[in-house]
Amino acid sequence: MRKELVLELGILFTIFAILLIFPTSGILTIASTSSLPSTLYLSWYNSDIAAYSSFTTYNPNIFAGGLGGDFYGLVYAYSAIINVTNSQMIPVVVVSWNFTPSNWQQVWQKEPVNVTLVVRNDTGWSNGQPVTAYDLMATCLVLDMFGAPPFPNYTVVNKYTLVETWPKDELSPILYTCTLINTVGLGEVAIIIPYQVWKPIINQILGNWTKIQNTSNMKLAEHIIDTIRSEIKNFRPNPLTYPYDGPFYLAKLTSSEIILKKNPYYFDAKYIPIKEVIVYQYGQSDLADAAITSGQVSLDWAGFTGLSPTELETLPSNLELIKVSEPFGWALAFNLKDKWLRYYQVRAAIAYILNRTAIAAV
Fold first, then answer.
1. How do 276-282 and 39-45 pair as beta strands?
2. Longest distance between any two alpha carbons in the chain, whole Å
3. How high is the pLDDT of residue 336?
4. Residue 20: how many other CB atoms lie within 10 Å
5. Using one digit for the tens of pLDDT, what is the confidence trace for 130-184?
6. Burial class of residue 165 (count of CB atoms within 10 Å of its CB; 0-12, 13-18, 19+)
7. Spatial separation of the C-alpha atoms in residues 21 and 224, rounded to whole Å
8. Is 214 exposed, middle or buried (0-12, 13-18, 19+ CB in 10 A)?
């Protein structure tokens, strides 16, 4: 990554992360100021404040109610993000990638495709441990347990290099930007699984990997996946020592505030002037909205609250409304919970007969 881009990502993380966490929202509200403050104030509508009121009740497991997608880019770092202006990937934790064989776009239906991901070696979790290829693999494996096989196979070449091997006819070059998002960008999910904390779950997945990948016995594969998925949802790591790999980590919880502190091990920490993020949490959406319209918060985006057009027109003068292009639109997706759509052959047959021109014209 070029040095000027590193500076941009560090200093302006609050803008790029927010724009890209919720790319379809198109709305960002930010305080008008000539310099960034040392504390950032946000408001968040949270229907389950009790679970976030103290470390006694809080489970950091993202699949059990822990800080999730709303906080990607804040407490969890992205592998790479999409530049909405040119559909190119911007490196973050993953600094380079390569697809092989060189003619993979011609042979992907007949041969496996390897995607080599190189992780930067100068960024760390908030507990001081480095972010490695094992964390990238762990995130991929856990996410796979909420999908259906066949999955890519994963090979950790060294501490900072991971190879995804996609089965033949699985990694299509059609809509190449989406291919990059789903491989290099982890499907727009941040690196959310610290391998060392989740090692028991990861070992359980790897110990059953051959059976999980055996699509000729889907009944057994689905049973194993369902069992592991239940283990994931019931996993409760220690909230006091749980690490975060984003520019901030969770430092304190109260019934009214979520307090984040700067992660000193984040690769761009020295370029981030903001030392603390205070997130006011509200059990009612109108209260969260009022915190914005009254000028109490520094920044808002539609994923946290969602102001009405009328409210957007009456923002206080210290807030500036920014509209961004929407990089994506409507799409058809398969429901993998359907017993027939779980079979790749059925999905491939449906994809083959779809008239994409007619669909796009609707």
1. parallel
2. 62
3. 75
4. 20
5. 999 999 999 999 999 999 999 999 999 999 999 999 999 999 998 888 899 999 9
6. middle
7. 32
8. middle
pLDDT digits (tens, 9 = 90+) for 15-29: 333 333 333 334 445
Residue appearing with tokens 């904390």: 197
Contact 296, 279 (CB under 8 A): no
- Return the number of other C-beta atoms located less than 10 Å from residue 274's C-beta: 18
- Nearest-CA neighbor of 64 among 52, 75, 79, 77? 52
